[in-house]
Specification:
The protein is an all-alpha fold. The protein has a domain at about 35-105. The chain is about 80% helix and about 0% strand. It has helices spanning about 5-25, 35-60, 65-85, 90-105. The longest helix is centred in the N-terminal third of the chain and has 25 residues, at about 5-25. It starts with a helix and ends with a helix.
Length: about 110
C-alpha cells in the first residue's frame, strides 16, 4: 500500500464516520418530531447489543475443565452484581474485566 493509498483510505473512513455521526442531526433537525420507530429502536437496541456481546464473549466456553468456564462465570457475576449495586456500566464492565484477568493470571 502506497502512502497516497493509505491517506485516501483514512480520508474516506473519516468522511464516512463523520457522515454517519451527523446524518441523524441533519435528518431530524428543527421542530420535526422523531418518528416513534426511531424512539423505540433507541430504547431497545442498547440492550440487544449488550446481549449479543455477552453471547459472543461466552460462546467459546469449554465445560470440560473448571478453568474453561469458571473465570467467565465469576466475571459475569461481578459485572451483574456491580451494575445492580452501583448502576454504573463503566465501573461494572471494567471491574469484571479486571476480575477476569486476575483470575486467569493468578488463580486458574
Amino acid at each position: 500500500m502506497t502512502d497516497l493509498h493509505a491517506w485516501l483510505t483514512v480520508a474516506v473512513i473519516a468522511l464516512v464516520t463523520i457522515l454517519i455521526r451527523f446524518l441523524p442531526f441533519l435528518i431530524f433537525r428543527g421542530n420535526r418530531k422523531t418518528p416513534k420507530i426511531i424512539e423505540k429502536l433507541g430504547r431497545i437496541l442498547p440492550y440487544a447489543i449488550m446481549g449479543m456481546l455477552v453471547v459472543y464473549c461466552l460462546k467459546g466456553m469449554s465445560f470440560t475443565d473448571v478453568s474453561g468456564f469458571l473465570p467467565q462465570i465469576i466475571a459475569c457475576l461481578v459485572v451483574g452484581v456491580l451494575y445492580v449495586w452501583k448502576r454504573n456500566t463503566l465501573v461494572s464492565i471494567v471491574s469484571g474485566t479486571v476480575c477476569y484477568m486476575l483470575l486467569l493470571q493468578f488463580v486458574f
